Amino acid sequence: MTDTYYLRIALPVPLRRQFDYLPLANTAASHYKIGSRVRVPFGRQQLIGFVLSIETETAVPVDKLKPITESLDSDTLVSPNILQLCEWLSTYYHHPLGEVLDLAIPVLLRKGGQISDIAEPHWRALSCKLQPSNVANSSVITGKKQLALWQLFQQQPHWRHKELTQQGFAKAQLDRLFNLGFIEPYQQLPVPHCDAASQSALTLNNEQVSAVDKISEQFGKFHVALLDGITGSGKTEVYLQLIAKTIEQGKQALVLVPEIGLTPQTLRRFQARFDVPVVMMHSNLNDKERLIAWHQCSQNQAKILIGTRSAIFTPLPSLGLIIIDEEHDGSFKQQDGLRYNARDFAIKRAHKESLPIVLGSATPALETLHNAYSRRYSHHKLTIRAGNAKPPRMKLHSILHQPLESGLALPVVDKIKQHLNAGQQVMIFINRRGFAPTLACRDCGWMAECIRCDARMTMHQYPPHMHCHHCDNQVGIPRLCPNCNSMQIEALGQGTERIEENLHQLFPGSDIKRVDRDTVRTKDAFDNLFDEIHKGEPCILVGTQMLAKGHHFPDVTMVVILDADSGLFSADFRGMEKTAQLILQVAGRAGRGDKPGEVWIQTLYADHPQLNLLLDGGYHGLADNLLQERKHIQLPPYSYMALLRTECSDKHLAEQVQNQAREFVQSWLNQYWQGNLLSINETQADTTPVTLLGPFPAPMERRNGRFRQQMQIMSHERNALHRVLEPLVHFLENLKGIQKIRWNLDIDPIDMS
Ligand SMILES: Nc1ncnc2c1ncn2[C@@H]1O[C@H](COP(=O)(O)OP(=O)(O)OP(=O)(O)O)[C@@H](O)[C@H]1O
Ligand SMILES: [Zn+2]
Known about the structure:
The chain is of the alpha/beta class. The chain contains 21 helices and 32 strands. The longest helix is centred in the C-terminal third of the chain and has 24 residues, at 609-632. The radius of gyration is 30 Å and the shape is globular. Residues 677-686 have low confidence and may be disordered. Bound molecules: adenosine-5'-triphosphate and zinc ion. Adenosine-5'-triphosphate (ATP) binds at residues 202-205, 208, 229, 231-237, 362, 386-387, 550, 552, 588. It holds the Pfam family PriA_C. Its EC number is 5.6.2.4.
């Protein structure tokens, strides 16, 4: 084709539009594949973008068009499938497509790297030299080491360079065999590692059988299944057996887990079960490892991918099943940039690729339960614990007017002693790291506050410093009150460090392990600690939610929850839902082995109706109550919400932009809604389709030196909401002076702070 054509390109810039470029001189249009990368001049920079289409017309005056600088891929990099899903994300989250596509590929490719960059040096024996007659010729090889090396090649003609050096062979020895013409070097992309399966499937109980059977009937078509199983009910075993069926059909499976749910134990459990390559993708991988995993999935070499949030973008050409473990977990929602929810996106992907998706949880999100109740999702319940384990006994323990010893009620201390004496493990949960959440002056009432946030500084002792957990600001611990020079300054309240210190005094000689972000900084530290706990020696574990999620510690028989109250009166409408989920997840760590477990929840509000409902009626009892409440006040899942956030060091500006946004939405609604253009349902034509709440200061108004404002935009019709948001985003993007502030639009927000 010699006719003029243009390349329409998505660029990773915060502008919600595409850009037209000229191709390189003398290249045919067929040279450019949709979804391939090109490097282009953009202002004074060079950016990498994605070819979206080849156009014969452009709205840009031709003399203004620039040619691309280079074409980076000779073939499609982002498959049509993933490209369309990214387009959906871009529309649904009102986020620039170029930035979405950028997220969809590994960092190294984003920076312009090539798959071939991950090729590794290998050596192979030349076949003529392997002929039996020539093997005898190996007398030209001198030296023991040299001979040993050649013998390796006789056993197996291909070797990774790294494997050979790990076995103690030097580059010089390889070079010598090369010079003799026995071997030659070559580059090859790494193939995934795979051992033979060492564990067989467990015999399922009736509930598990029913879930596996019913869900596998849905293979090959779009279907959402909620696997609603209490903690320790064997949800993972159900996943494993569904995956086994998927693999039998020659398909791939994708398992998404929460940020801290991907432990080596999980990986080992999967690897031990299957004969096929299992790869992992999580934030601890370096860029190269990520690209390797991505490549192996895209080539259908890896059959099972276990990953955190962003693994949902991975190309899997024969994907047959998606599993979202702990689907209620907040870490599936990205909290900056493209604020997508990987669970919701996964459902979209399953729909597009016509395959079943399983959402598993002991405490499903209210949105998910609502969808199951209204039969959009199938609902599979596991109501008993697998194996011999029984659900733990749970008890609310009032600490109102009760003496506490180092933050623990006296009967709790006695109970802990009993469990330790019986050789068992005890877990104490407090969702606050550091020594104490407040440092205060007894004489004048001064409290240590962050200079950049509306928040108190947390006191830490290891090492000693004051730390703002919101902006990371750190300062020394004052010796005197900065306000009145009094020496009577005191740490108030408890964090994990202080509890740990107190426990040493209360239980001298006991093994006490603290588990929080300060003690477990590296993945290795985490792994070592888990191996320690799994030895089963009696100990007390004190920790934050790092301890809570999904772990299987069979020797923990008692769990104590210290600060359940902090979530009871949250300003966030999801506060109670999140509190209940956390309590049950933590409680679920007790009694998972053969010995029964008990859970003590210390509270000042032992007659709090919803806490009691949770204990008496279980998660579903409470969830039904919360759903009724949400229905009554028309909050999600009974309405759809977007949150417009603005922040600026100038308080007035953050507020002003919100007011302009509000005015814009109102006048837009007046103009279009009353003209009935938005009407989805005639009978609703005179009710406002979209309501605005705010702008208000955010619950923490000042954070990291910026004032924060927010406005809730809600509707009963998802479409109506999005039809308003689209012009709103356009309006904001073009608003004069908008560069002076930061703003974002959060669709289906889950963090309202
Ligand atoms: N059918 C079964 N028979 C015997 N043991 C089983 C069976 N299913 C699962 N188990 C065992 O029960 C324990 C708990 O199972 P699993 O970890 O799968 O539970 P879970 O529902 O995923 O728990 P959680 O939500 O608390 O993480 C594991 O040790 C597992 O091997
Ligand atoms: Zn701060």
